[in-house]
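Lab notebook, design round three. We kept the backbone fixed and only want residue identities now. Task for the bench partner: fill in a sequence for the structure below.
Input structure tokens:
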């Protein structure tokens, strides 16, 4: 069962201003909050982006870890909120899986406004709460999401925090896999942050959304791409942010928009790719590839098969099952903007695909990982290679494989 929970935790004002003794220990977030806010200002100016972004992530991780280790108490009323603080527990509201859909839609529909209101940030000091409530209310009303249960719950909790002079920290654990009944939040009395190994982190990144949960995300991304295409048709720039989408959703939805019901290639419609760090990737070509008939694809039946993991050092147990890793993890994971990583993956993929032009027909089984710039860069280069070969007999095919803990790897729709 896949679900996504966001714990909204309220912290009194003094914790945002100094180290505070609490339950026999010390809550020490104020210096990290000050550093993180300073980094946000510098990032907006484009100063030393790579190092600043790394420092920012570390600051946020320290803030969240300090909160997650405390005793938490669910609250829905002002009385419960105050009682939790009096009992030295942090008031909490739990947002269910639907909030991920809401957050994705707001970030994609109004990226500039969402950025200005710090939507998607994980901490909100007391002095920012009033303005954030106002902007969040405005954005959700414009998106037609004001009546969504999680929107109301989040807004209500922020209002309680404001009345009690508190700030809020969001503990986001997206796509957490829990063996619980649908719609039932995990029990909260004393919630401890789970310590996970690096292998677990890779698994969570690569795990895909199953059929029960992915429909909304497919529809949201499809709607955003369609609107971007319409913007391009009207002579404007069509922009889509892919950073908050699972990699299987990106791959499958892009495939639907790449192909045309024609027998020959057509001039691409390009949409602008943006990432949540503010960087912009190269435009992605859509509405350009012909759909080949089964007869045309039949000659790929005897093509050489290459099994490749998208990135090395992800699932080490796969090493004996694949022929190669398309990208080296150490190269893809270098400190750079997401758009620069996208460009690196695009350029390397283009070179490798061009080298296959003289080697006969080739089918690639690509065991994907969840790093969006690597996925976007790979498929942009692959579409361009298919465009180059579009009016020739079918000679190249990629079938993405997605990981599920319940079923292992399973194939998506082929690109050919």
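Proposed sequence:
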């Amino acid at each position: 069962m896949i679900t996504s929970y966001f714990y909204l935790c309220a912290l009194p004002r003094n914790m945002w201003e100094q180290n505070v003794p609490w339950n026999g220990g010390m809550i020490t977030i104020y210096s990290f909050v000050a550093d993180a806010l300073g980094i946000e200002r510098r990032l907006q100016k484009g100063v030393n982006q790579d190092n600043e972004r790394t420092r920012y992530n570390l600051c946020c991780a320290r803030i969240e870890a300090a909160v997650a280790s405390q005793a938490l108490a669910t609250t829905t009323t002002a009385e419960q909120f105050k009682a939790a603080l009096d009992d030295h527990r942090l008031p909490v509201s739990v947002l269910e899986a639907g909030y991920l859909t809401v957050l994705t839609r707001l970030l994609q529909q109004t990226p500039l406004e969402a950025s200005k209101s710090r939507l998607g940030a994980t901490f909100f000091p007391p002095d920012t709460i009033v303005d954030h409530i106002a902007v969040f209310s405005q954005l959700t009303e414009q998106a037609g999401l004001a009546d969504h249960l999680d929107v109301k719950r989040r807004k209500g909790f922020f209002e309680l925090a404001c009345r009690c002079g508190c700030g809020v920290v969001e503990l986001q654990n997206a796509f957490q896999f829990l063996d619980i009944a649908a719609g039932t939040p995990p029990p909260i009395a004393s919630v401890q942050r789970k310590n996970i190994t690096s292998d677990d982190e890779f698994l969570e990144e690569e795990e895909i959304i199953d059929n029960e949960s992915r429909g909304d995300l497919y529809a949201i991304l499809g709607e955003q791409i369609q609107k971007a295409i319409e913007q391009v048709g009207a002579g404007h720039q069509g922009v889509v942010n892919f950073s908050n989408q699972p990699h299987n959703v990106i791959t499958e939805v892009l495939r639907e928009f790449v192909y045309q019901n024609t027998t020959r290639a057509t001039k691409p419609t390009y949409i602008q790719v943006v990432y949540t760090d503010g960087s912009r990737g190269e435009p992605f070509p859509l509405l350009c590839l012909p759909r080949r008939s089964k007869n045309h694809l039949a000659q790929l039946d005897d093509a050489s098969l290459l099994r490749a993991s998208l990135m090395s050092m992800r699932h080490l147990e796969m090493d004996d099952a694949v022929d190669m890793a398309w990208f080296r993890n150490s190269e893809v994971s270098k400190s750079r903007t997401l758009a620069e990583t996208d460009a690196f993956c695009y350029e390397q993929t283009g070179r490798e695909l061009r080298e296959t032009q003289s080697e006969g027909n080739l089918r690639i089984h690509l065991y994907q990982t969840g790093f969006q710039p690597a996925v976007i860069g790979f498929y942009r280069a692959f579409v361009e290679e298919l465009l180059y070969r579009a009016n020739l007999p079918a000679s190249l095919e990629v079938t993405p494989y997605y990981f599920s803990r319940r079923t292992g790897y399973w194939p998506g729709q082929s690109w050919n």
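Keep this in mind before ordering anything: Residues 2-182+189-195 form one domain.
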